[in-house]
């Protein structure tokens, strides 16, 4: 089974299954959101704007070349919907992770972690960014709050996020990209050690002694 994380494009957005494809909770403030007639078109327009103004704003995980999950992230200004949380606003030096979703049938295999790794790698390579923040959910996986999905706090903690501003249900979490860089280096070093352990040892070279002339 092939699994890979790639940059999210408008084509990937169109492939995502509802309700993710039509969710504009993060992208619009409550007033504008209540007036939207075609949320899928609105989300596509939002992504087009972010891609043009800021660049890549998401990663998609493909299993056998089919999109089964995604993560969205951008500077907080692109997510006016986040203003409803009591722990808002996000820090000015951080990128905001808004949504992370993996289809129910594909969960439990580490795809969510792969998406976070892909996001961190992208932000580290861009440079000039300090951290990623996210509004977590303490109520457990799969719980809908106010008509939107939040990332469980337990998952965020497992991939390197720490509480930035506490709250009973929706704490704001933060991952320092310098720590993520160190973690990435450690992961690559561990992988290299693992690969070294399973590679066959090089065959010893047996040089034949040169013949000598008898006097």
Strand content: 15-25%
Tell me the name of the CATH class: Alpha Beta
* Overall geometry: globular
Structural class: alpha+beta
Say what the CATH topology is: Aminopeptidase
- H/E element sequence: EHHHEEEHEEEEHEEH
The tally of strands reads: 10
The helical percent reads: 25-40%
In short, what is this structure?
With 215 residues, this protein is an alpha+beta fold. The chain has helices at 10-15, 30-35, 39-53, 111-126, 153-158, 177-198; strands at residues 3-7, 58-63, 66-74, 94-102, 131-137, 144-145, 148-149, 151-152, 162-165, 172-176. The strands form two sheets. Strands 1, 2, 3, 4, 5, 8, 9 and 10 form an eight-stranded mixed beta sheet that branches. A two-stranded antiparallel ribbon has the order 6-7.
Structure characterization notes:
Strands 1, 2, 3, 4, 5, 8, 9 and 10 form an eight-stranded mixed β-sheet that branches. A two-stranded antiparallel ribbon has the order 6-7. The chain has one domain: Gcn5-related N-acetyltransferase (GNAT) (Aminopeptidase). It has six helices and ten strands. It is an alpha+beta fold. The protein has helices at 10-15, 30-35, 39-53, 111-126, 153-158, 177-198, and strands spanning 3-7, 58-63, 66-74, 94-102, 131-137, 144-145, 148-149, 151-152, 162-165, 172-176. The chain is globular and about 50 Å long. Helix 4 (111-126) packs across helix 6 (177-198). The model is unreliable at 142-147 and 208-215 (pLDDT under 50).
